[in-house]
Every structure is written in structure tokens, then in C-alpha cells.
């Protein structure tokens, strides 16, 4: 028998996991390392409109994916060797946490607590990602309104 955990509210669980991680990284003395530009917006002269945490997957045997974690809990994953600006089959916003993300966050936080870089990519640049707010995201949790 195979058991797979499926949270009632996948996006809520994703936000819970990542916001706890970003808070722990701040306690460990780390800060967001990447500017973020959404969609086709041009980078502003006063800096990028948002900041994010760009992580590289350095786990042994891992595919080498890159994850961009926003402070509000959204996560952009780009497959190994791809730019986040590439097509959605290669890079996309995650709808729910997966095992790879959870393990990556745990190992990165452990590295940061031991004085390492926390697997943060060394970049001073700006990442361009798809606009996450263009597509309405339905709430997938249980219905709480009365009938």
C-alpha cells in the first residue's frame, strides 16, 4: 500500500512551508538575493519591483533545479539548466509543495545555520518570471460557506 500525503489546501500548505523557511533564513542572517520582474514589465530604474530567494538544488543526485521563493510564499521552479523565462513546461509557479522542495528547504536551512550560504545562488541580477497574478487561482481547500 502506497501512501501519499495530500493537504486539503495545497497552496496554503505551500505558503506555510515557505514563509516559515524565509523567517528561519532571516533569523540565520540571510536576506533575499535576487530581484524579480514579473511578465513583460521592464525593469525600473529604481530597482526591481520585488525581491526573492533564489536557491540552487545542490543535493547529491538531484536534478539541479532552481527555485525562486517569494516572501509571500509563492515558488517558481525552473528545471535544470533552464532560464525561468522559458516556457511553462520547463519553468512554472508551483501549486503545492512537493518532496523535492521540502527536502531542498530543509538542507538549505541547515547549511545556513551552520554558517554556509544556505544554498542561495550568488547573483546580483534580476530574474524575469511569468506574471503569477494573471491566472486566477481557485481556492482548493474545503468549502466553509454555509448553505
What does this protein look like?
The chain is an alpha+beta fold and 147 residues long. It has one domain. 22% of the residues lie in helices and 19% in strands. It is built from 2 helices and 6 strands; from the N terminus they run αβββββαβ. It has helices spanning 10-27, 99-113, and strands at residues 34-38, 50-56, 66-70, 75-78, 91-93, 126-129. It has a 6-stranded mixed beta sheet with strand order 5-4-3-2-1-6, covered by helices on one side. Helix 1 packs parallel to helix 2 (99-113). The protein starts with 9 loop residues before the first helix and ends in an 18-residue tail after the last strand. The model is unreliable at 84-88 (pLDDT under 50).
SSE blueprint:
Blueprint: H1 10-27, E1 34-38, E2 50-56, E3 66-70, E4 75-78, E5 91-93, H2 99-113, E6 126-129
Parallel strand pairs: 1-6
Antiparallel strand pairs: 1-2, 2-3, 3-4, 4-5
